[in-house]
Design a protein that fits this description.
Chain lengths: 278, 255
């Protein structure tokens, strides 16, 4: 049971981070469920049909999803705001439709036989990705991403190529979602297209707060564990879940951890107070 | 084609129209090494369009733009910025939810040119120091940890210029820097501009504050309805009858 918690929370944390990475450059992606599915299926085929070791298969599926992400992102990132969201929803739905139509991977029935994920795989992944994001949050690259998110026009007139930055984030986000998806699939043994396509991933990140790297994992943990803790009241589960989401939105509309951590901190200068956004 | 050896930016026959409305008609001009070129004209004369075409925001219909001898007509904004053309915007565009110091640091060339490599570099002390020195010159050092969005109007304008200079550009284009400023602020801005002059090879200022331009610009180009109608020393140009007519013929003459 505790194993389940670790794996599900860990996978969801990495998925939330995959949304966060894309959001760093200002694009909200609903496509990550699709990338997760690509990860689950590509790695599943590699391990079950070709005998690849799990970690290698997960990495290959991640690279495949990353490439698909960049290819799909190239036209998608020409749109902005609500249109971009719609395009990313479209990407997720197309992935599902394609998977369902391929008999080689079981079509609508789903695909089975994947084994091998231990909690250690997931914990290792969380530590690696978290470490990378911690490194990022203190590097000059964070500022470049923030600049693109804040104002693409300003960023461009400072020499930053916004398309390149956003595309790279999209590719990295797709990679992370796919790796998480492949570990998830190899824990569940059997996956169907429905199971790996979740809009909740975006909620994890948005509810946790997207201004710093600690928001998404907290959102993911709360959203994954809440349904478990209210299990006693079986019939009320969806209601309780909804109430938690509503409370979060009411109390912290920008997410639980909404503050942004500056990439540089200077010693306080007399007469100046560092101000932080909330 | 004759290219002035001394010219930083040379624009030849630049034209731009929007749905049949001509915003720029065959504009040719040179920005010479070491000078501040003032670009004047009543509202709707095409000054801002000119800046936006030069910096790659709008594609030019016809004509060429050469920067330090190189054809840069069709380059995107970020590529022009990397080559050394910096700009500010008429309506100030800061990264409002980032600190004052970050706004300047983000423009550091080493990082901007190789974004992925910058993941593995630190906030090097020399960069922070250089940025702080720049902020001191612009009287913003004591506010470096403030969010840029919380600055007063005049401060925000100074920060935008400081940020544009952080990338060590050769040419700086200021789009109506004094817009919305009172007299005292305009005067301070003039000092700021004079101070930043030595950090650059040339500067172009778009403005319709006549007094400010008289005091700052080495040369003036006057535009009206997309045409260049005068060019030369400020004193002479401002005395030309067609320039006076262009200004007095509109209601914006006093702005």
């Amino acid at each position: 049971m505790i194993q389940d918690y670790i794996v599900f929370v860990g996978v969801n944390i990495v998925l939330a981070w995959s949304v966060y990475v894309i959001l760093l450059a200002g694009s909200l992606s609903f496509a990550n469920g699709g990338f997760m599915a690509i990860g689950a299926y590509v790695s599943g085929v590699l391990t079950v049909k070709f005998g690849f070791p799990l970690v290698i298969a997960a990495l290959i599926s991640g690279i495949a999803a990353g490439l698909i992400g960049v290819l799909a992102g190239f036209p998608a990132l020409r749109t902005r705001g609500i249109y971009l969201m719609l395009v990313t929803v479209g990407i997720a739905v197309s992935v599902k439709a394609v998977i369902e139509s391929i008999d080689y991977v079981g079509g609508i029935q789903g695909f089975g036989g994947m084994v091998g994920t231990t909690p250690w795989h997931v914990v290792g992944l969380v530590v690696l990705v978290g470490g990378g994001l911690a490194l990022l949050s203190r590097s000059p690259l964070q500022r470049i991403l923030d600049a693109v998110r804040e104002d693409e026009l300003s960023a461009a007139s400072l020499g930053i190529n916004p398309i390149y930055v956003k595309l790279t984030c999209f590719g990295v986000g797709a990679f992370l979602a796919a790796v998480a998806g492949s570990f998830y699939a190899h824990y569940l043994i059997h996956v169907s297209p429905d199971q790996v396509l979740s809009v909740f991933i975006v909620l994890y990140a948005v509810l946790g707060g997207t201004n710093n790297m600690w928001g998404p994992p907290i959102g993911a943990a709360i959203m994954t564990l809440t349904p478990e803790f209210v299990r006693g009241l079986e019939a009320w589960r969806p209601t309780a879940f909804g109430v938690v989401i509503l409370c979060l939105l009411l109390i912290r509309p920008d997410g639980l951890l909404a503050f942004r951590i500056a990439t540089t901190r200077t010693k306080a200068v007399a007469g100046s107070k560092p101000k932080q956004s909330t | 084609m004759d290219v002035y050896p001394q010219s930083i930016l040379s624009v030849d026959g630049l034209s731009k129209s929007f749905r049949g409305l001509t915003a720029l008609d065959q504009i040719s001009l040179d920005v010479r090494r070491g000078e501040i070129l003032g670009l004047m004209g009543p509202n709707g004369a095409g000054k801002s369009v000119f800046i936006n075409v030069i910096t790659g925001l709008y594609p030019a219909d016809y004509g060429t733009v050469r920067f330090l001898g190189r054809d840069v007509t069709r380059l995107p904004s970020y590529a022009l910025a990397r080559l050394g053309i910096a700009r500010t915007y008429q309506n100030i565009r800061l990264l409002r939810r980032m600190t004052v110091l970050e706004n300047v640091l983000v423009a550091i060339k080493d990082h901007v040119n190789r974004p992925l490599r910058s993941l593995f570099t630190r906030n090097r002390v020399c960069f922070v120091r250089a940025a702080t020195t720049l902020l001191e010159q612009f009287h913003l050092a004591d506010k470096r940890d403030w969010l840029a969005g919380s600055l007063a109007y005049g401060e925000a304008r100074r920060l935008e210029i400081a940020r544009a200079l952080a990338g060590k550009p050769s040419l700086l284009l200021l789009d109506e820097p004094a817009a919305g400023m009172n007299e005292r602020e305009t005067e301070e801005l003039g000092d700021t501009i004079r101070a930043s002059r030595k950090l650059l090879q040339a500067m172009v200022i778009v403005e319709h504050d006549v007094a400010m331009m008289r005091g700052l610009a080495d040369r003036l180009v006057v535009m009206d309805a997309g045409h260049k109608i005068a060019e030369g020393k400020p004193g002479e140009v401002l005395a030309e009858p067609n320039v006076i007519e262009a200004y007095l013929g509109t209601d914006e003459a006093d702005e």
